[in-house]
Design a protein that fits this description.
Blueprint lengths: L7 E6 L5 H13 L3 E6 L1 H11 L6 H8 L6 E4 L19 E6 L1 H8 L6 H12 L3 E5 L6 H12 L3 E2 L13 H15 L13
Parallel strand pairs: 1-2, 1-4, 2-3, 4-5, 5-6
Helix pairs in contact: 1-7, 4-6
């Protein structure tokens, strides 16, 4: 009996500025055929409204409409649903990406505070030894931020700050967004063509 490798991946979107990063990441993973388990914090929904103009009374319905038409599948989990599948280590996933990641969420993950589904899912990644990528979006950073990042980095969490590069000659905001999403996908060895690599 041949077991197929799971293509489930968890995406968290917090209230840090840069909601478009999480949206583009979700779109890209869905376009590649992944089953995306999406968690948006309450503050994340606020940033959706402020930065992207997304207003939804029916959040799940809104997301299904926003991300329809891709070969992958979207599964939305409310942040308060601590009993969701991704809260258990027995549920197989490729890993988790929180993009963008607020300093509050980063601190909760660093200190094992699993008081909602997003931080619980991240805790599961740590205890199961699965890939966890955080994309911090804050400036300037103070010592507590840096200490929390160092603590998580020492545990094997990948820190990919939202710092787009310019060596590839970006011509638009989309180019900068795609670069960051591409760097995150690189950390999972997921093939993409979101930006021109050095030497290409």
């Amino acid at each position: 009996m041949t077991l197929t490798k799971p293509k489930n991946i968890v995406v968290g979107i917090t209230g840090a500025s840069g909601a478009i990063y999480g949206v583009r990441l979700t779109e890209t993973l869905l376009s590649l055929g992944y089953s995306v388990h999406l968690v948006v914090s309450n503050a994340g929904w606020r940033v959706f409204k402020e930065e992207l103009g997304y207003i939804a009374s029916d959040r799940e319905g809104f997301l299904n409409e926003r991300f329809k038409g891709y070969p992958g599948s979207l599964l939305y989990h409310p942040v308060a649903d601590i009993g969701a599948s991704i809260a258990s280590g027995s549920f197989r996933v490729e890993g988790m990406i929180i993009m963008p990641c607020s300093m509050g969420t980063l601190s909760a993950v660093a200190n094992g505070t699993s008081d909602n589904l997003m931080t619980r899912a991240a805790d599961v990644m740590l205890k199961e030894g699965r890939p966890l990528v955080l994309v911090p979006r804050e400036t300037p950073l103070h010592a507590i931020h840096l200490e929390n990042m160092l603590k998580l980095s020492r545990l094997g969490v990948r820190m990919i700050p939202a710092m787009p590069a310019f060596y590839f000659g970006p011509q638009s905001m989309d180019d900068l967004i795609n670069f960051m999403v591409g760097k995150v996908l690189d950390s999972f060895n997921i093939e993409h063509n979101l930006f021109r690599r050095w030497g290409d």
